[in-house]
Structure formats: structure tokens, C-alpha cells
Amino acid sequence: MARRLRARMVRLARSMISDKKANFAVMAALSAPVALALAAFAIDEASIYNERRTAQAMTDLAAITGASNITDIQNAVVTTLNDNGMPGIIVQQPGQTITPAAGQTVVSITPGQYAAASTVAVGQRFQAGVTPYNAVRVTLHKTPARYFASALIPPPVIGTQATASVTPMATFGVGSRLLSLNGGILNSLLSGLLGGNISLSVMDYNALVSADIDMLSFTSALATQLNLTAGTYSDVLASKATIGQIAAAMASVPGLDGTSAAALQAIAGKATSTVKIPLNTLVDLGGVGNLAVGQRPPGLGVSANAIGMLTAGAVLANGTNQVALNLGATIPGLTSTNLTIAIGEPMQFSPWLAIDQIGTTVRTAQTRIKLTASVTVGNPGLAGGTTLASVSLPLSVEVAYAQATLTNITCPSGPSSIQVSIAAQPGIAALHLANSNTDGNPTAFADFSKPQSFSNAQIASIQPLLIPLLAVNGSAAVNISNNSPQTLTFSATDIANKTTKTVSTRNITQSLTSSLINNLSLSINVLGLGLDVSGLLNTVTPAVTSVLQGVTAPVDNLLYNLLSALGVSVGSADVRVTGATCGRAVLVQ
After folding, report:
1. Cα-Cα-Cα-Cα dihedral of 406, 412, 418, 422, to 10°?
2. Residue 95 and residue 47: Cα distance in Å, rounded?
3. Of 60, 74, 64, nearest to 110 (Cα)?
4. In this structure, is the dihedral angle defined by the CA atoms of residues 347, 351, 354 and 357, taken in order, positive or negative?
5. Which residues make Cβ contacts (< 8 Å) with residue 434, sequence separation at least 6?
6. Please, which residues bridge with residue 314 across strands?
7. At 189, which helix (H) or strand (E)?
8. Residues 502, 491: Cα–Cα separation, whole Å
């Protein structure tokens, strides 16, 4: 009996082992829970991956929008995220650490400054909190939705980050104050600087004053003049050219009026200076320089005043940085007029015109003018039989560089609302009616690294009765200074009209030379004759002062025109913005 039972059990076991259907059923039953868990995990992982991609796209968009609205970054970022369906926006402030709950999005917004310099490591190009802001970094954290695996894995947090930068740019320059012109003086000045015989009319100069040169067309024309096969504008500006080549290239710019073109051609033909000017010391095109020759930046005007660029180039082309002018008796009230002018080198890396970003500075050159003139005496008779034999005007003017720095570009509601801020600081001016320690030493006069010193000069000579000629000596000094820059704001209308704005050290309502003469201190050299000259000095001083006062107006006009032609003015700085763009925000990291 027992034997038959064992046999039956063996047959049953063999039957079960040979039945494959039953085997798979058991295995399926045992593995089903694991398979379902893996499927749930895979579905949720795919969902989280897609949600992270969406979050990254939203973070990128928020960073770009924030950079485009650099003055209202937080509002721009939050509005962008809300409008694109990101739930429960919470802005995490500096120093906070917020873990997002379900249905929440935690956003960290960090403004700063981005510099795309190849010499700086990528991770260090964005500097958080550094002003002026031109970039924003947006970091986003959120808890993603889970559908099946919430009981199997802890709640994850996805994080995304994006940095966007915007590059607003402006075209601006300092100097070039040519509000009035004297053809003879300007002809003499340009002839001295360029080595030729320049003889343009006042109408020619007026045409050049009102003409603007498109700088990109000028650079292209210059490439043709120099037979360059340069790829970019910066390649052209890395070369050198004579002032004649520069004037010829300016004359060929499309759209220039006939009078201006003819005047520039005349200057190009008459200029004999062979000094080659490094073009990048004249113009800095900034990021625009990276464009291929012939391309143009959208929305950015790139123009410069014709006479301003010409005189700036003439200064650079003058190899000795000096020019001497003999104006003879052309100045009313003066029987002779001799001028010596020294122009300092512009500061390194500071061009006359710049197209660049916030922080860029342009400067004028330092200028020294020495005027030695003989004044027409008129009625020489004085009280007591004394004769006023001669009167001289030894005048020295030194103007330090004026500078303008681009401090801000804002576009609150788009390009039509653009505003450009320039911090302008006029050059300090020192005027002396005296002898300079550089008299007779041209090298020292042009050496701006060493200051001038001054001493009493012979202002007049008198002839008392029965006494040899006596020298009347004296000196006076006036300083015009300003230690802090003033901000000039240019609107879209100002930029379109190319409006010139001026910042002044002070409002100079009086004659410059008159203020010197009013402070003039005189003494008489009696040559050891032992005479009491106190009464004689009381007679001579009013007469000499009166004669000098009679020439203050024409001398002021002369100084004004000379300094204007050199792009500077006493006690003021003139700034013009000729183009600006808000730029486009782009992802940078």
C-alpha cells in the first residue's frame, strides 16, 4: 500500500515538473509587484525629466527677460514665470534657503556684471552684485509632480539655472566745440599742424562743422585708400594712415554735401605731413569693430563731426606736438601777435570718439597756449610829462584734459525710451599774465609731465621827464577748476538730433583776460636811480590797465577759437551722443 502511494507521488511530481505553463504562472505572480514598481518609477522619471526641461526653458526665458529689463529685474522674472504657468512663485532673498513644497517654485534672482573676456575663466565672467548691472542669474527650484512612485522614493527637487547678459552701447565724444569760426585763425592753425598751406573759407569751415561722417562708411573708404583686405572694421583701425589719407577717405563717404567734400579734398591735397596716425587712437568702435567691413549694427548710429575728427587727426599728425603762428596785426588793438601752441598726447587707450559699453571714457588732449603781443598804446601822454612808451601782453593758458564717461544706458519701455547718462568733467584751466619758465625752450614747453612756473613779466615801459625808460613789471593768475564730474542725460530725441550738451566748471560771464588784468599787480624797476615812484605807479597803473582792457574782447575771441579748433574750451566740456542701442539680451552661461 505504502509502495503504491509513493509511486503515485513520484508520478505527480514528474507531471508538475514537466508542465511549463504552471511554472510561468508562478514566476509571473512572484515578479509582478517588482515589474509594476519599475514601470511606475520609469514613468515618473520620464515625467520629471520632461518637467526639468520645461523648467530650464522657463529659467532661460526669465533670465533673458530680466536682463532686458535691468532696472526692474525681479518684476520681469516673476511676471515671465507666472505668465508661463510656473506654480506658486516664491522669491528667495539673499541669505535665505527655502525648500519648495508641492505646488511651489522657489526663484533666486542675482543681478551682476558679465564681462565676455577671453582671458577670464567662464565661471568667473559673471560677478554677482557688481554694478553697473548688465546681467542677471536666475536659479529655480521646484518639486516635480509624481504619479505612481511617490510611495517608493522620497520627493525630489529639480534645479535649473541660467545667466543672461545685455550689452547696451552708445556712440559719444567729448570736445569739438565749434560754435563760432574765424577762417584765418583756423587756416593758420591747420596749416601749422599739417605742414601745408590751408586756405579754406569760413563757408567751407561752416560746412564741415555741420557735417557728420558715418564712421563705418569712413572706415570702409579708408580700407580702400590703404589697399587693405581687412576682414573687420577693427582690422582697418589697427593700421596707420596720414592725415591726407584720412581727409580723402572722409571726402568719399556717401551722403556728404558737396562743399564739405570739396573742403576735405582740398585739405587732403595740401597736407604735407607724412606722420602716420595709429587709427585706433582716433576712433574706438568697441564691439562694433568685430563686424565684417560692410556690415552695420542694427539700431546704432555711428557718426562723428567732420571738423572735430579732422582737427583731432591733425593734432595726432603733428610730429612735434607744437605749432607756432605769427598773426601779425590781424587782431584788433594788437600791433603784433605771436602764438605758440603745444598739444599733449591723449591719454593711453582713450580715443577721441568711442562706440562702447558702460564704463568707457574718452578724453581731450592737454593744451598749452603762449601768446606774446604788443598792444597799440594810442594816446601815450600821461600826467606829469610821463610817456607810456609800450605795452605788452604775455599770456599763458593751460587747459588740462576734459573727460566724459558713459555711466548708464536704460530703456524703461523699449528703444524709444532710451536714455544715456554721461559723467562729464571739464578740464582745469590755468591762465597767467606773466613770464613762463619755458620761454625760449620749446622742448620744455611741450613737456606736459613738468609743470610750468611763472614770474613777473615786463608789461609796459614808461618815459618820465629826463629819466631813461623804466620797465613796468607785473603778473596775474586765474585758475578755473572743478573736481567732480556732472551727469548729462541724453534722451532718444537728443540722440536723434545729435544735441551737444555742456558741463561748465562755472558760469564764466566775465572776460577771461579781463579777470586777469583786474588782478594785475605792477611795479616799476627804477634801475637803482633811488627815485620815489609811488606817485608815478599810481599814474601808470590805471593807464596800463585801460590799454590792456581795450584788447580783452579780441584776445578772448582768439583764445576761444583756438581752443575750439582743438576740441577743448576753457572751463567747460562739450559732449555729444550720436547713437545708442539697448542691445539684445542673450544667454551667456
Report:
1. -20
2. 32
3. 74
4. negative
5. 394, 396, 454, 455, 456, 457, 475, 476, 477
6. none
7. helix 183-194
8. 15
Compute the residue count for the chain. 589
Place of cell 511606475: 40
Distance CA 395, CA 570 (A): 14
The Cα 184–Cα 201 span in angstroms is 8
Backbone dihedral angles phi then psi of residue 90, each to the nearest 5 degrees: -125, 125
The pTM score is 0.61
246, 185, 435, 345: CA torsion to nearest 10: -10
pLDDT in tens, 183-236: 566 777 777 777 777 777 777 777 877 788 888 888 898 888 888 887 888 888
Biggest CA pair distance of the chain: 177
**Gap between the terminal Cα atoms of the chain:** 87
Cα 583 to its chain centre, rounded Å, is: 17
Nearest to 346 by CA among 310, 312, 319: 312
Instruction: Domain ranges for the chain, please list them.
Output: 24-166, 170-587
Phi, psi of 354 (to 5 degrees): -135, 145
Other Cβ atoms less than 10 A from the Cβ of 542: the count is 10
Tell whether omega for the bond before 154 is within 30 degrees of 0, i.e. cis: no
